[in-house]
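My current task is to audit a protein record that another person submitted. Alongside the sequence sits a line of tokens, each denoting a local backbone shape. Where you disagree with what is written, explain briefly why. This is what I was given:
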Amino acid sequence: MNGDERKLLEARLADCVRLGEKRPAFLGFLELSERAEAEAYLRRARAENWCFFGGWEDAERVMLGVFPDYLEADASLFPLLGLTVRFRKQDTLSHRDFLGSFMAQGVVRASVGDILVEAGRAVLFVKTELAPHFLSQIEKIGRVGVQVSEGFETPLPAAHKFQPVGGVVSSERLDCLVALLAGAGREKAAQMIAGGFVSVNHRETLSASARIASGDVISIRRCGRFIVDALGPKTKKGRLSIQCRKYI
């Protein structure tokens, strides 16, 4: 996120917080990086009565809701709806297929939350105001015929697949982990960090010496996104073993 994008988001957040003093106000759907920026802004603004919600417990794309003091922050008040899209199991469709089809119809990305896809079914979350369009106008994704209905059944399709990644590093410094995960040397990893190619927990991090902890998410431009599952134990030579998962 560049400086202009950050300023625009902060202006939208300020409006949301101001409106939320009188009535429930909502912003989004937000990307992971936007959510991280929003959380930082809300802390600085000392806003208290707010929450994020994306239609299900582990949603990545979420809306921000800001509520007046007299009203408890409540996920049921968010103006979003879950929809189910069914198609033949032999017709392979991906997240990209759905998103491309929606964008081709003029649907703005910020109006659509997570899109969860499995064989024969997809569950997606949209702004309530757009639900009638999806229910009445979406009959094909690409060349595949689909049927859209309101609501969804659990369990939901898996949001992601992962590939295990492991190795040893000299320490928990960010440049050490980036070097391992990107298959680069420490010097190159430090250059990538300084150049703004690396985010930790969805916020750009420019310090090569930043310390990484278990549970952190490291995103490396053109290399992918990784979850750090475990740091340690140390090897006999004093190096640190790590276990990660790469989003695929």
About this structure: The helical segments are 3-20, 32-44, 95-104, 131-137, 174-182, 186-194.
